[in-house]
TrEMBL record:
The chain crosses the membrane at residues 25-47, 59-78, 98-118, 130-151, 193-224, 236-258, 270-289. Residues 41-287 form the G-protein coupled receptors family 1 profile domain. This is Olfactory receptor. GO terms for molecular function: G protein-coupled receptor activity; olfactory receptor activity. It comes from Macaca nemestrina (Pig-tailed macaque). Keywords: Cell membrane, Disulfide bond, G-protein coupled receptor, Membrane, Olfaction, Receptor, Sensory transduction, Transducer, Transmembrane, Transmembrane helix. Belongs to the G-protein coupled receptor 1 family.
């Protein structure tokens, strides 16, 4: 069977997180609330940064793009998972499965590079403050964001091309709530050990290497901040701590899943839920709670909306 026929005739059955009807209803309500909260929280950050002139800086420009990516990451599979809880036949076409793989790796790949760009921004701001304006210009910020999307597209294309070469001739039950290579390639009629090595080399090692680079950069930044005892240093420490929490929450599950692609399906399910559903909602919470600038800007936005409503004729 050629690829074209496979893509039109083959479908996968998504087993989801549980077979229990009661648990599925609980998941339906919880994930529906989390999805709405993710979209509202990240949209609030985007709107706040756009509206408030005080937040028109490179760091918040990158944060806005991170929020957009988080909304996209939360949307590539979660809405289907939520609606699947209301049906008994949870299937996805071959093309739909490839589409999920493409967008998953597009958004995760883009977010990895964007997190590195945010780390670079903080490194220059704290370690080379006198050169910050000349190094982190608006053009450089746009170039960093564009580069992150280009890398994300290239990475996701490599994953889709790899998936297209896999021969599927047997079981079609995907033990997850969305399609990703670690679970899909185990259904292929080839040696999974070789495929596992591909996963480790193209995703696992890349994620681990980027995490190590980010970890080292934040260590340098924190050591620099420690040698300064001022209000600005305290603010920088708070910002960098928030950044590192986001990095750890995002990279931890990714590294585990792609460095050990033949690990337990239950573990992979839990980690997949974490970085596709929980991390996108945690990002706005972490940045909002730890950033005084964002909290003040949100308060101003709320007051402007309240004053606008009062000024409206009844």
């Amino acid at each position: 069977m050629d690829v074209a026929n496979k893509s039109t005739m083959f479908e996968f059955v998504l087993l989801g997180l549980s077979n229990s009807w009661e648990l599925q209803m609980v998941f339906f309500m919880v994930f529906s609330l989390l999805y709405v909260a993710t979209m509202v929280g990240n949209s609030l950050i985007v709107i706040t940064v756009i509206v408030d002139p005080h937040l028109h800086s490179p760091m918040y420009f990158l944060l806005t793009n991170l929020s957009i990516i988080d909304m996209s990451l939360a949307s590539f599979a979660t809405p289907k998972m939520i609606t699947d809880y209301l049906t008994s036949h949870k299937t996805i076409s071959f093309d739909g499965c490839l589409t999920q793989i493409f967008f998953l790796h597009l958004f995760t790949g883009t977010e990895i590079i964007l997190l590195m760009a945010m780390s670079f921004d903080r490194y220059i701001a704290i370690c080379k403050p006198l050169h910050y304006a000349s190094i982190i210009s608006p053009q450089v910020c746009v170039a960093l964001v564009v580069a992150s999307w280009i890398v994300g597209i290239m990475h996701s294309m490599s994953q889709v091309i790899f998936a297209l070469t896999l021969p599927f001739c047997g079981p079609n039950e995907v033990d997850s709530f969305f399609c990703d290579l670690p679970v899909v390639f185990q259904l292929a009629c080839v040696d999974t050990y070789v495929l596992g090595l591909f996963m480790i080399s193209t995703s696992g090692i890349i994620a681990l290497s980027c995490f190590i680079v980010l970890f080292n950069s934040y260590i340098i930044v924190l050591v620099t901040v420690k040698h300064h005892s001022s209000r600005g240093s305290s603010k920088a420490l708070s910002t960098c701590t928030a950044h590192f929490i986001v990095v750890f929450l995002f990279f931890g599950p990714c590294i585990f899943i792609y460095m050990w692609p033949l690990s337990s399906f239950l573990t992979d399910k839990i980690l997949s839920v974490f970085y596709t559903i929980f991390t996108p909602i945690l990002n706005p919470i972490i940045y909002t709670l730890r950033s005084q600038d964002v909290k003040i800007a949100i308060r101003k936005l709320k007051n402007r909306l309240l004053n606008f409503n009062k000024a409206m004729p009844s």
